[in-house]
Amino acid sequence: MGENALTTPIVELRHVFKNYGDTTVLKDIDISLEAGKFYTLLGPSGSGKTTILRAIAGFLSVSGGDVMIAGQRVNDIPANQRDVNTVFQDYALFPHMDVFDNVAYGLRIRKVDKAAIMTRVQDALHMVRLDNLGDRMIGELSGGQQQRVAIARAIVLEPKVLLLDEPLSALDAKLRQDMQYELRELQQRLGITFLFVTHDQEEALALSDEIFVMNDGQVQQSGTPVDIYDEPINHFVADFIGQSNIVRGRMIADYQVQFNGKTFECADAGMRPNEAVEVVLRPEDLDITALAQGKVAVRVDTQLFRGDYYEIVAYDDADNEWLIHSTNPAPEKGLVGLYFDPEDIHVMRFGESEEDFDARLESYEEE
């Protein structure tokens, strides 16, 4: 029994669908969250990430599939009886109450005795470093302090899972970065599961133990930040996570890929011989070198100084655009070489049907 408790996911979505009339906004979602980790749902607006959060919280019903919390199916259990709590984008704090009363509100609704409320609220405020602000009104707080009050109000109820719906989006850039550190540290101190929604790729990469990349109501890829960044599974993930150079190529054989009219060693294998593929090279993995030492020849078009690196845009003979991040400037409008190692090349399948593949391969041969 103890072993099952350890292996049971704290949250699980099994083949979950959500329809609004004829529109399907969640398509066969399978997600499993372990206890005590920081997870992120990452994707553009309309990708379905907030719908997943609301389905777990109980704010909307699913059209199909099961929502499980700690091994229990909760589809028919109302939101106030689920062992989760939500921090909303606008914080939803009560402006007519002070900080203490905002945090204590949920405990009073649950009829917890006064002594226990005092202790638990003080503990929650200490957790978010607001020990001395219990008597402040909400309007007297900064944006970062209000965000911490919202988190304290959620964690004081001791949920198994804390759901965070873009809680940093209203903060300025510097405060947002500071709060990222605080959120991660808080999650590790509390040891409870965080499920965080954002459209900010850098935020997701910095905070998460695991990321679910969403698009068009589906999970495109899940994995650690390093896996997602270094091994994108398709064009959308490669293009959405960070910055990428994506060019069309052909997998000649295991560990050999052809693009830009040349064959290069790479670290990928397991595809069909001569399969049409897409090749990903990250801007920071490209080194500008003399033309003779380069693997690809490009002509520099523009470059911008970004503080700790130069962002350089260049074009090859096939008019492919190349984005390069370099610590040194490139020659103005000059012809240079690009050098990269085999492990810097990531090869992706197109992810299409056999018929579509054959049609694409035929058109590729004709070009």
Automatic annotation (TrEMBL):
SUPFAM superfamilies: MOP-like (SSF50331), P-loop containing nucleoside triphosphate hydrolases (SSF52540)
Domain of life: Bacteria
GO terms, molecular function: ABC-type transporter activity; ATP binding; ATP hydrolysis activity
Boundaries of every ABC transporter domain copy: 11-241
A Pfam family it matches: TOBE_2
UniProt cross-references to InterPro entries, sorted A to Z: AAA+_ATPase (IPR003593), ABC_SmlMolc_Importer (IPR050093), ABC_transporter-like_ATP-bd (IPR003439), ABC_transporter-like_CS (IPR017871), Mo/tungstate-bd_C_term_dom (IPR008995), P-loop_NTPase (IPR027417), Transp-assoc_OB_typ2 (IPR013611)
GO cellular component, one term: ATP-binding cassette (ABC) transporter complex
Metal-binding among keywords: no
Keywords: ATP-binding, Nucleotide-binding, Translocase, Transport
Keyword presence, Transport: yes
Xref: PANTHER family: SPERMIDINE/PUTRESCINE IMPORT ATP-BINDING PROTEIN POTA (PTHR42781), SPERMIDINE_PUTRESCINE IMPORT ATP-BINDING PROTEIN POTA (PTHR42781:SF4)
Protein name as it appears in the record: Spermidine putrescine import ATP-binding protein potA
